[in-house]
Amino acid sequence: xxxxxxxxxxxxxxxxxxxxxxxxxxxxxxxxxxxxxxxxxxxxxxxxxxxxxxxxxxxxxxxxxxxxxxxxxxxxxxxxxxxxxxxxxxxxxxxxxxxxxxxxxxxxxxxxxxxxxxxxxxxxxxxxxxxxxxxxxxxxxxxxxxxxxxxxxxxxxxxxxxxxxxxxxxxxxxxxxxxxxxxxxxxxxxxxxxxxxxxxxxxxxxxxxxxxxxxxxxxxxxxxxxxxxxxxxxxxxxxxxxxxxxxxxxxxxxxxxxxxxxxxxxxxxxxxxxxxxxxxxxxxxxxxxxxxxxxxxxxxxxxxxxxxxxxxxxxxxxxxxxxxxxxxxxxxxxxxxxxxxxxxxxxxxxxxxxxxxxxxxxxxxxxxxxxxxxxxxxxxxxxxxxxxxxxxxxxxxxxxxxxxxxxxxxxxxxxxxxxxxxxxxxxxxxxxxxxxxxxxxxxxxxxxxxxxxxxxxxxxxxxxxxxxxxxxxxxxxxxxxxxxxxxxxxxxxxxxxxxxxxxxxxxxxxxxxxxxxxxxxxxxxxxxxxxxxxxxxxxxxxxxxxxxxxxxxxxxxxxxxxxxxxxxxxxxxxxxxxxxxxxxxxxxxxxxxxxxxxxxxxxxxxxxxxxxxxxxxxxxxxxxxxxxxxxxxxxxxxxxxxxxxxxxxxxxxxxxxxxxxxxxxxxxxxxxxxxxxxxxxxxxxxxxxxxxxxxxxxxxxxxxxxxxxxxxxxxxxxxxxxxxxxxxxxxxxxxxxxxxxxxxxxxxxxxxxxxxxxxxxxxxxxxxxxxxxxxxxxxxxxxxxxxxxxxxxxxxxxxxx
Length: 801
Description:
By secondary structure, the protein is an alpha+beta fold. It has 20 helices and 37 strands. Strands 1, 2, 8, 9, 10, 11, 17 and 18 form an 8-stranded mixed β-sheet that branches. An 8-stranded mixed β-sheet has the order 5-6-4-13-14-15-12-16. The chain has a 6-stranded mixed β-sheet with strand order 28-29-30-27-21-31. Helix 2 (58-78) crosses helix 9. It is globular, with a radius of gyration of 27 Å. The N and C termini lie far apart (71 Å). 52% of the residues are buried.
């Protein structure tokens, strides 16, 4: 066994072998994979081997499409068979909500170039004739659906990697991973020690244990999963062609042909987590004991949906574990707090996602960043607050909801509330309807005494609509108050702080007492952040950005740290409120003596009531507004001061639903909607905040300068949409004639303006007032009129006055 390598990949399942192959494909040949047993040991060998492109996240869907297309390439490279069966598949809808979800997914596929289609019962009967169509409304047909041979595919990845120079060491159990002072790693195994520059944890069922060797917690958990293979079925083996896949979400099942019979698997409600206290090291090629009682109800439902099953004998039962992260997506990327340690685990759908995971991780390692936004699977999307006690109930919830309808406004209840601010009980008493972000409870809106304290999930305007309208009206006519805990916050100190920020941020770094808005770019010019930078002293700055992105941002800051600079994540050490509306200044004046003269983009330390605060004049609502920050221990006192002083002004609490409506009045973009690593500053209009005149080679400058001289092909615009009871939420296609020319990044109803608004990326040469556009919402094309200016405060007089 070799003693040094550039990369050591731990784990020989399909994901580990994909990572190994993609590292060689992108040019790193000094790579080695360590497997404690044989390739495919763990979850891979007993997987059902299905693959599909359907995924609610468009980037994940694109990576699944890449994975599926990769298999033929692997066969050509290696001469090995992956056992591909491109049979197509249908996902059934037995009610209107489920059908609405499939229609919305089909709309996304239009601009993604996926050839899916909505089909009715008559067409379903032709595609999947063994299906009982009683109660079926329609289905989504995907010609790319299929299945493969898990073992053959994994070994094809492995052979392709070996052909690229990689080595694979079998029966090599990793015992320790120890980091040296220079950031490299000693990987201690039963066959000796390998010194590696990088480690990739692709440990699968053992990823938790592998992560623990490096002193970190991998938030995932194995679940027991069962599928059944039937005896020969004449209606199957007498067909001229292989029977397509059928996904039956109502029955929590997936079905496909297996040889001369059928294979059907279930995501049952009485599911069971496995290996709660850790995965045994001697587990690998075993199966779990059959547990048909657990899937009894699922089988009964399947007999009704596919009657031939009741007449078919059972050839075998496959019952084995595989791993989930709390939200069901993989855990991929550089692990926060560790240098040169990478995650490639929690890939529940390994044969749909494994190729895309391998490509993204290899790009990240070799090129410094992946080619697309991978936030949905970034390992840093969970902070250091996460625990096994939180992970397990979320994994159970995700397993049970594998085939559930996914709504754009849905808030899932498991393991909540987990993290709360001092305002939680006060806001609950005021009727708060809670959402969550990064484990934190965040008020979405405030229900009146005769409204339910939960929001019913819907693809259309929900029961939050009226409450949101009330809160928007209160802000625009008087003063509203909203918590600012859900901002990511960082304190930057040191004599080199300003110079460092000038290099990290593309925008202007303000002078003392002022703040600025700035994008943060990657070396390839893509957006990594949308920041407010506040200068409190010559060597003291506060940054605010996305709360849910704080671990990703901190990882980036620490990676690029140099000079006399200290970076501290103070997201939970600084809290407070924002006040907004035409009476916001009156409210502040009633509570403090020295903030009345704050100009737009000013920041100042002051005392509000009894509380030492930082007050800054900026507003995401687009109205006159202030952000007031304090120590969390002082937050309730600050609330009492502001709330009491605001009573004569009819002060009203407002939540995130109102915030999103208010920002649409000003056509403001939102992080991970309009602004994300998928887009550049020039595409989204963020280039207006770039400080072109500063004499600093900030990260991403070369690309930004090139786009300044040669504007990109697409640009962000806003439309007023002739909507009815549903608004754009994101990824709806934009049509000109019968051509899909762009897609929505977000949208909603702007209550103050009284219009449905959609923000969208379209070709730059089409961004004209006379563009004859339509946006598909819930299967219907709606007229969309380009907005050339914000419908509220177009000249900024109210916000800046």
